[in-house]
Specification:
about 180 residues, alpha+beta, Mago nashi protein, seven-stranded antiparallel sheet, 5 helices, about 30% helix, about 35% strand, flat
Amino acid sequence: MPKSSLAVVPLPLLLAARVALGATAVLGAAPPPPPDLRPLLEIQTHTFSTDSAEFADQEITIYQGGTLQYKATSGPVPTCVNTTLALGTGAPAAFAPLKQALRVGQVGIQKDCGKGFEFGTNLEYRLEWRSTTGRVNRFEFGTLYKSGCPAGVAVIKKAIDDYVAAVLSAPGTKVIRSAPCL
């Protein structure tokens, strides 16, 4: 009787292999791809008041795959600073309007605009955009962006604000906040 070339593998060894490789590898499904962590937008904002020592600063990076890295500090200078750190990814339904706004708002050709100050709350905003093909555009705008910039700048800013708010409120986002100032 001819001998079979198939080896008999003990059941505990098969189970150990399944655990080591992960159930998806044994079942034939591919693991999910890693997130695309090439920067799409890098943003720095500074909001301040001419009437008080209140300020708010944000550093935001949004990656090509939708991951958001966020740092915000705010408070009255110099007595207390509140800090928020966050890392998360928005749902595709939240990311799509941002990508659309970048196209419609022509992020690749915007230039510095809307700079200047008023009495009350003021804004300084720096944005760097990177395409998937390597194109880069950097521009700044300020408090007067609604009247002193092309309409595309306001479209881009609103879409960024909406996306940041969506990611910060998403259940999977990791958010760490410092103790509030008293």
